[in-house]
Structure formats: C-alpha cells, structure tokens
Amino acid sequence: MRWPGPSCKIEELVEAHYGTLYRYAFRLSGSAAEAEDLTQDTFCQAQSKLRQLREPDKARPWLFAILRNAYLHRVRDRKIENSVSLDCVGDLPDRLHEPLPEIDPVRLQEALDDLPEVFRTPVILFYFEEFSYRDIADQMGVPIGTIMSRLARAKAFLRGRLMQTPVLIDDRLARRVEENV
Amino acid sequence: MECSSARLLLNFQRPGELDADERQAFKQHLDICPDCAAQSRSETQLDRALARAMQAVPTPASLRARILANLRPRRPVPLPWIAAAACLLLALGVGTFVWLNHRPQFDHNSFMTEMDMKSGDFDTVLAVFHGEGIPVAIPPQFNPSYLGFYDTQIVQGRKVAHLLFHFPGNNDNRPAIAHVFVLPKSTFNIGELPSQESRSNHTFEFWNHGNFVFAIMHTGGSLTPFLLRNDL
Description:
heterodimer, A: mainly alpha, Rna Polymerase Sigma Factor, Chain: A, Arc Repressor Mutant, subunit A, 2 domains, globular, B: alpha+beta, 7 helices, elongated
C-alpha cells in the first residue's frame, strides 16, 4: 500500500509554490479574488493529477501551466477579455530618459489587463518568475521566435503605458490581434 | 556588430538568453558605442523596474491555510498493479497451503505391498491370475527360470496379466528383459499385427497363441536367450 504520486506530496507543493502562484494568478487576472480562486483550483487539480508529475524538479512550470489553463478556461467561458492592439507598437525600444521612475504596481496591473493574454502571459513569466524564452515557449506551446516577438512588443507596450509614451488603444484592432494570434 | 543588430539584442540581455559569441559581440559593441550603451542601461533599468513592480503583489495571510483546507483528505489508494500482485500472492499462498495440507500421506507399507514383485513358477502364475479372474496364458516357449515377477497392467483401459522375464546374460548374450502382456482376444478386437518391429533400444513382437495374443516388448535384440533350448 502506498500513497498516490511520485515522490512529492501536495502539501509540500503548496508550501513551496502557493505565494508565487497567487502572484502569477493576480497578474494574469488582475483581481485578488480571482487570483485566490485560481490558486485554489490549481492545487486541487494538481492533487488529482499528482501522479503525472514524474520529475519533482519540474513542479513549478507544471503548476504554472495548470494555473494558466484554468485561467484560459474561465476567460473562454466568459468570452470577455479587454485588450488593446499592439499593431502600432514596435519591437525596437525607444530611448528612455534616465533615471527611470519607479513603476506603480497598480498602473502596471492596469497595463497588463489591457494586454491580450498571449502577450500578457509571456511578459509576466519573463519578469515575474524569470522564465527563459525557451521555458515560456514550452509553457505556452508556441515557437521560441513567437515568444521573442511577443515579449518585445509587450515590453514596448508597457514602456509606452508606464513611461507616458502614448500608445494607440483601439478595441477593433485588439479583437483582430486576438483572432490572429 | 552594427547598431541595428545591437538594438535587436537589447531585449535579450538576461544571462542565458544569448549564446557566448552573441554576448561577446554585443558587449564589444556597447564598449565602443555610447548610444547603444545608454540604451542598454535604460533597458536594464526598465527590466528591473518592471520586475520589482510585477512582484509587488501582497499575498493574503491566510491563503496557505485555505488552500490546504480545500484539498481533499488523502486516502491510501492501492495502485492497480499492487492490488493485482497482492491477489496473486494471496492466491499462491492459499494454493500452497491447500496443496501442502492435502497431499496424501506416503504409506511405505502399502507401497511395498502394492509393488511387491510376485514370483513363482508358471503353475503358480496361472493359479493366481485365475484366482483373480484375469484371463491368462503363458507362452510355453519361455524358460520359466527367467520369470522375474508377474502382476497386472492396464492396457488401453483393460486390466491384463503382465509377466516380466529377466535374462541375466551369458558368454554369448548380454543381460536383457522381456515384458509379456497377455491380451485375451475376448477382451480386445485384434486385427492384423506385425510379427516384429524394432525401435531404438527395444523390440516389439506379437505372438498369436489360441485365444490370446502375447504382446512382447524386450531388449537385447532377440528373444532367443529367453526361450527353452528345446524350442530353438
């Protein structure tokens, strides 16, 4: 007789990752209540799928993937996601005036909320958890070149929003971007 | 490296994102290009500021406890293969126990009685088999002194008389044995038979004798040593 799961227990995973997952969920959803819901949901799913986790070292990306899928399900169910177009945002950065002011986390969240999920997720993973381009590509199941391009454009968008550079916000174009990505 | 290439790499300054050659070329360009170097510093500052702001999310104090409370209680779940292995072991154990406790007790006295080699002259043999109601005849050509023992054997479902002759060997012939099965024609529908058929280490012979057929299996290649001299 043995417990299910390979070599780690769900309680250990909660202990090690609940804070990180909550913050990731918060940045994805923009809501504390939804972030908590998503975190709970992630660990409940992880508990039932624990035997799929063959390598405990990969617990973190595995949990992140579960959380993102849970988030995407919710977004699809609601069929709403506010986002802006990045068509007018270039990949190459503009020179900023130094020194840079601190970024207000609330304004950052507002800017993230306006990004389509396919841009928001890589930028969160990149800055928040320091995932590599390769890790993000694996996580999202897209080529690494796509991730590089999305990150560059998302970063340019955030720079524009947070450093007061004007960025075109057009809902019509946003829908088109979402349909094309 | 030109400025246009260097600007493309500004988003990939984090360790591990550029390979060694790209990193070296990028660094060399920044050393000689003040504009790109300033842009690089600016990007690095932006990255740090974004990372700090990104991580500035307070975690609810009781979140961990609520998550743990929401997990379903863990129960021991026997894996299918463990259950199968346990069933197999149990079956093997029960089987072994039953087998060990239901083997017949070996009775050496009964064994010796059942297997005792009866011996005697031809008259005694005839008397014993007649007494048991078993049809019997003895091939008169055989030397009675070579009769080792007699008993009954089951041949194709019927009990028949069986005689074993043993030739001890002499200067001309090696030791040999001959099994004689006495088949009554009233018991078996006997068709055409070969008179003799040799196998690798023994020979079959079939002798007709009135209401009987003697089915003989012997070693030594020839029955001659077993026979009375006056029959040679």
